[in-house]
Design brief:
The structure is a single chain. The protein has helices at residues 43-51, 90-99, 105-118, 134-146, 164-178, 192-198, 234-258, and strands at 2-10, 17-26, 32-36, 58-63, 66-67, 75-78, 152-156, 184-188, 201-205, 213-218. The relative contact order is 0.18. The chain contains 7 helices and 10 strands. The protein has 2 domains: 2-74 and 155-258, P-loop containing nucleotide triphosphate hydrolases (Rossmann fold, 3-Layer(aba) Sandwich), CATH 3.40.50.300; 84-150. Helix 5 (164-178) links the parallel strand 7 and strand 8 (184-188). It is α/β, with parallel strands linked by helices. Helices cover 36% and strands 22% of the residues. Helix 2 runs parallel beside helix 4 (134-146), helix 4 runs parallel beside helix 5 (164-178) and helix 6 (192-198) runs antiparallel to helix 7 (234-258).
Length: 259
C-alpha cells in the first residue's frame, strides 16, 4: 500500500475543510503498520482512501503499484462497528462473504465452519449476533473478513468498543491469524499500547486540520509476540515513552483548540 502526496478535503469552495494535508506513507509486503493520532486527525480517512471509498483532492493511493480507482477489491476492511446481519447465525454471517462471490453454499458453509474454529468459536455456529458477547462478535467479523483471503487488511479501531481484557485477547487472536501469512496491515487505533503490541511500525499523525505525519517508530520487539506479555518488556516501555512524546504534543493541540 502507498499513499503518495495524499490530501483530503470535505466540501467545496470557501466552505471546504482540509482534513488531511499531504501524506506520504508506504506499507511494505508483510508489514503491520499502526496509525495513532488525536481524535479527528484523519486516521480513518486515510484507510478510506486506500479502500477506494474516498477520493483524495491531491496525490493518489496505490495498491500493489496500481492507482486506486474505485473500491479496492484486494482489501479486507474491519470496522469499529459490527457489520453482522442480525437475522443470520454466526455461521451464515461468515459464509455469506463467500456466497456473494459465487461460491456454492455447501462449500461456503464448510469453509465458514473452519474459520469459526480458527477464531475460537467452534460450537457457536448456530448463535445469532444478539446471543454473542462483544468479543465473540468481533471474532465472527474477523472470520468474515479473512475467509475471502484478502491481500491487504485495513482495520479501523476494530477492538475499540471492547473492554481492556477482551481487547488484549483479540490482539492475540489477530496476531496468531496474521502470522500465518503476514498480509500487509494498516491498523488505526487510539490505544498506543495496542499499537506497539501489534505493529512492526507506529506512525503518529498530527492534530487537524490538514493533518500530516509527525513521526514513525520501528517496533523492534521480537516476533512471535504475546499481546499481554510483551507489555512487560523494558523495550516496550521505552518505545511507549518515545512515541508518547510525539503523540502528547498533538493531543494537547487538539484539546487546546477545544478549550
Amino acid at each position: 500500500m502507498e499513499l503518495a502526496g495524499v490530501g483530503v478535503a470535505f466540501g467545496a469552495g470557501q466552505n471546504a475543510f482540509r482534513a488531511v494535508g499531504r501524506v506520504d506513507l508506504a506499507v511494505a509486503p508483510h508489514e503491520f503498520v499502526a496509525i495513532v493520532g488525536p481524535t479527528g486527525c484523519g486516521k480513518s480517512t486515510l484507510l478510506n482512501v486506500v479502500a477506494g471509498l474516498l477520493a483524495p483532492v491531491e496525490g493518489e493511493a496505490r495498491v500493489f503499484g496500481r492507482p486506486v480507482r474505485g473500491v479496492t477489491r484486494e482489501a479486507g476492511y474491519l470496522f469499529q462497528q459490527d457489520a453482522l446481519m442480525p437475522w443470520k447465525t454466526a455461521l451464515d454471517n461468515v459464509a455469506v462473504a463467500l456466497e456473494v462471490g459465487g461460491v456454492a453454499r455447501a462449500a461456503a458453509l464448510a469453509r465458514a465452519r473452519d474459520w469459526l474454529a480458527r477464531v475460537g468459536l467452534s460450537g457457536f455456529e448456530a448463535r445469532y449476533p444478539h446471543q454473542l458477547s462483544g468479543g465473540q462478535k468481533k471474532r465472527v467479523a474477523l472470520a468474515q473478513m479473512l475467509i475471502r483471503d484478502p491481500k491487504i487488511l485495513l482495520m479501523d479501531e476494530p477492538f475499540g468498543p471492547l473492554d481492556a481484557q477482551t481487547r488484549a485477547l483479540m490482539g492475540d487472536v489477530l496476531l496468531d491469524l496474521w502470522s500465518a501469512d503476514r498480509k500487509a496491515v494498516l491498523f488505526v487505533t487510539h490505544d498506543l499500547e495496542e499499537a506497539i503490541a501489534l505493529a512492526d511500525r507506529v506512525v503518529v499523525m498530527s492534530a487537524g486540520p490538514a493533518a500530516r505525519l509527525v513521526s514513525q517508530h520501528v517496533v523492534d520487539l521480537p516476533r512471535p509476540r504475546d499481546a499481554n506479555e510483551v507489555r512487560l518488556e523494558p523495550r516496550f516501555h521505552a518505545l511507549q515513552k518515545a512515541i508518547w512524546e510525539d503523540l502528547r504534543a498533538e493531543v494537547l493541540k487538539t484539546y487546546g483548540r477545544a478549550s
